[in-house]
């Protein structure tokens, strides 16, 4: 029993990290049909920038904050100088964001060297609680907490503020939102920057979780995020949350039962969704080419 | 250039390449050019998707890797015979056919992003699979194997690769000039229009995908034969990225473009690897490629051959105008 | 003139859709755009809104040239749009659909909302219903209401009678006549009965050009014109 509870905590923690990555991806896609293949690059930058400052100052919170700031800046830069020039041209867009992904993760190696860095757990989050014979690692609970907070905040903003309504309306019908007097360009810039900041936040949180950070992890986790976005439905935050939990939990359980199949099982879920409901479990957007 | 002139020119270059090993017998150059031939085939197969049909794949390496692994595993298990090679060929074709068909059917009816994501994810899965299934693949360390005696000679292998490239080139040339190829290009130009003209767009896209997949598998086979070694790197994103660069820098939607792109990228690889001894920054040559790639996509989306063709067309117009026609 | 368009030409992709639209809309009237399917009526509205920007010609609104403005600038100057498919956000409730359109919540805006809800009392009963679950007529009303809560002086409406039951068409037509007191209207309409009922003047579009214009009364009598461009008699 204890082992299953532990696996569940593990799975949820992984799921939350993937969720943080997927939120930005799914909203950016929903609003502007832009699939940002460079999203994983932001994840790595968050990890390295945050952990670096954490190591220098000893303050993990400062590291988190720094990662978020780096995400906002990179997000602004990417939207303004990479995505905007190729609006409306899907092929160029997809091709260029992959190039940015590559440059981002290679620049990591230029600045911090090609080897992996160790990322210690901050003292106040180290260790674990033992509750009724079950060992719960504090840091993993912390990730789940942060993920839940982000989810609740995102949900609140999307359902209770006019800005949030505009974002949701924009996912459903971008043109109509414009025809109602909204500067969709500015909304998109905002969403892009917040999405980028959540990706960098996920990166820095990932550091102490895995213990090491390395430049290639961006692509690995971006693939998880893509799978989540497909399963949950492009443009749906709720769908991403749900699919992240599925992917995280099934990964954790299968990794325990049949370790060799842990990646395959997520692919399998994705394939089933694509066959059965290609717009995703919570999708509100047309997906036909 | 007129049509006939173009072919005569091409034949002369082919002839030159055929006799090159006997004129200039440098081992490292021969190896480099052989690699160029192999990657040119891989890049041409990619261009059938990207340039001629407008499909973006981020996992073309999966077919390449399947071809390479079938060859490596086949020759190691069954001995370095022609029969073993033939078996490997059969397995490559069947696997690539099946996989490209499944991936295509799943995602080509959806928006273009899905295919890009799905291929990326599939290739990631295959790479992890190759790492984990150690009994078959020896994982990341890889393994060496022997190839049929006849192909051991560098010059013969060079000629073999050259012939391989020419055959695929002519095949693809025929294909894109055929009615089938015209439909693919119509899909690239305006998918809705092609659909409203009554073409089964998905059907055509899936077939383009299957053909590109099988040819990529073949190029992976020849690649494995040339190295006589294989590890999981054949499934790496780097391979897909290289082929993207070759196609885009060379010129999408042309067959000559990928060949020129392959020559440029492979030569650049070679030079940059040497320069890595001079300064460590050159080890990070991928950045350089990445930046060039971004700039090309932004400002030079037609690539070398595409831009050249456009320029030639303009020049011809000018000449005609001068003649008052 | 509230709105004046001169020789407007619009391309969509490689297709040349509008070849020269010239029309003027006087304040306080209902101007109806007529013409066969594919004549360019919808594109004309979309070009005015900046959703399908015109490549040539000028669009003057209150004397200001607006053809190069992005849609949100055009809306800010007081033009509202009700598209053919109504553009309802299906996942949002009636209230939320209106909220997206209401940039400010000052007293003037609340007054407009009040006025609009008096015009379409049905919306109040479905206040918390999601847009996707509304009937066709309700969607049409919501779409018009969503434009009316903005600070408008010109409203562009694309085929409001399309797909509606006759009784709903009548309802919408009455609403339009009522709205006339507050805002100028440009109406695209295939239903000639409705067009001639609410319209003050007409323009006929054919193959992306304006080919005829005049007071609605004249068109009612001119059988030749009707047969030639509208296929009705």
TrEMBL record, chain A:
Membrane topology: Multi-pass membrane protein
UniProt similarity note: Belongs to the binding-protein-dependent transport system permease family. LivHM subfamily.
GO molecular function, one term: transmembrane transporter activity
Compartments, as annotated in UniProt: Cell membrane
GO biological process: amino acid transport
Protein name per the record: Branched-chain amino acid transport system permease protein
CDD domains hit by this protein: TM_PBP1_LivH_like
UniProtKB/TrEMBL annotation, chain B:
Subcellular location: Cell membrane
Keyword entries, A-Z: Cell membrane, Membrane, Transmembrane, Transmembrane helix
TM stretches of this protein: 7-24, 30-49, 56-76, 82-108, 156-176, 206-227, 239-265, 285-308
Membrane topology of this protein: Multi-pass membrane protein
Highest taxon of source: Bacteria
Molecular function via GO: branched-chain amino acid transmembrane transporter activity
CC annotations in GO: plasma membrane
Chief location: membrane
Protein's name according to its UniProt entry: Branched-chain amino acid transport system permease protein
Source organism of this protein record: Thermoflavimicrobium dichotomicum
Lineage: Bacteria, Bacillati, Bacillota, Bacilli, Bacillales
TrEMBL record, chain C:
Keywords associated with the record: Amino-acid transport, ATP-binding, Nucleotide-binding, Transport
Domain ABC transporter stretches: 3-232
PROSITE patterns for this protein: ABC_TRANSPORTER_1, ABC_TRANSPORTER_2
MF GO annotations: ATP binding; ATP hydrolysis activity; branched-chain amino acid transmembrane transporter activity
One of the protein's GO biological processes: L-amino acid transport
Matching Gene3D superfamilies: P-loop containing nucleotide triphosphate hydrolases
Any matching Pfam family: ABC_tran
Similarity comment: family membership: Belongs to the ABC transporter superfamily.
Protein name per the record: Branched-chain amino acid transport system ATP-binding protein
Lineage of producing organism: Bacteria, Bacillati, Bacillota, Bacilli, Bacillales
